[in-house]
Description:
The chain is α+β, with helices and mostly antiparallel strands.
Amino acid sequence: xxxxxxxxxxxxxxxxxxxxDEPRVGGEGAVFFSAxxxxxxxxxxxxxSKKQEYLRRVIExxxxxxxxxxxxxxxxxxxxxxxxxxxxxxxxxxxxxxxYRELLxxxxxxxxxxxxxxxxxxxxxxxxxxxxxxxxxxxxHGKGCAHSDIHFRNFxxxxxxxxxxxxxxxxxxxxxxxxxGVKGMLGFMAPELxxxxxxxxxxxxxxxSLALLILHTLLFRNVMCPLRDxxxxxxxxxxxxxxxxxxxxEHPTDHRHRxxxxxxxxxxxxxxxxKMLTPRLQALTEKAFIDGLHNPGKRPTAREWxxxxxxxxxxxxxxxxxxxxYPYPYKTQPPQQRTCPFCGDxxxxxxxxxxxxxxxxxxxxxxxxxxxxxxxHSFRVxxxxxxxxxxxxxxxxxxxxxxxxxxxxxxGTYRLFNDSNNTWTAGSPDGKSFTVRSGESLVLSHGTRxxxxxxxxxxxxxxxxxxx
Length: 468
């Protein structure tokens, strides 16, 4: 074992750390793990002359992260002074728990996902992972920096919890302050970085890479993968396919890179389409890969992705055949055509109720949040749904509920029960108003409006309707 001494470590980090003898060696350096299991130390092989000053700036940039932000990134904490008595360039960071594994292992292709599904994981776990990824990039962009190397090997994920952390924080970029060390990995790089050798990574190229990684996590494929040759030289063909001739695999008119069996259920050897996602996530996908492919300013921000992924948690449905979770396709009409994207089984009646949420911006002026709730028998309504300026937390374990849904088979209707201490006010489609006190319920019929209390959000039932 070796002893590592550190320059000015922050509170909670010792000035001397004993590391184990078996490092993980990469091209840039070696990573050693502390004997107590709490830290990792990266030591560079042949660092450039300004690397130590660069690392000092990165440490300063991330020195005041909140506890929430620390969940998603692993920044350098202090510089290495000596390694086993010899001066070295490197840094110490906290160690990610061993149950975290490379995101690559879970998302590389459908077979990787199938292995996880066989172990009891569902698509809902992947949705949480994608949200964690977006949160990590939100932390970086909130600090005014970009990463330049976003791909599925630079994230470690715990699929059980959906928590994901970003690595390689010693490679962040701040224009005019912290220069990029690399341009990224082919397959995740923005096309302008491939076409123009003078172009440099920035937040807008990060937005492209982030969108690719999110879609790869949700669909188990790279949605920009070129599927034709553009040159007899394979390397040149690859660069052209990802760069000059890049096209979204589900572009509405350009089908050059469209995969086989697109939209066929995954368990029938099909390929998942982005159209299985919620309408909000579909719109962001089109902004990223159609509108923003060659117009970087139109690419969605990390915050837009994070919010849409958070809201998607309340739009999930459970397949009665394969037990998979997926976004309920309420936009598909008629409802009899709604099917599970994994096994293809038709969604069976009773179809869920779908509610649209509104929030008060000014007195008596409510705006649509572009957020919906999909509710079936035994579903619960959580407090974060009705509170203004709130979104689903990463876990609702122990979270307070304000209502639950029951299916009334005799009447063929869903009933929403008030489990809160507030009195709700509601309006029926025929214009009648009524109250719903604690312990009482109301029928979720099309057009019903529910006010969950003074200052709370409003929900309007948009399904079931006449077509169901």
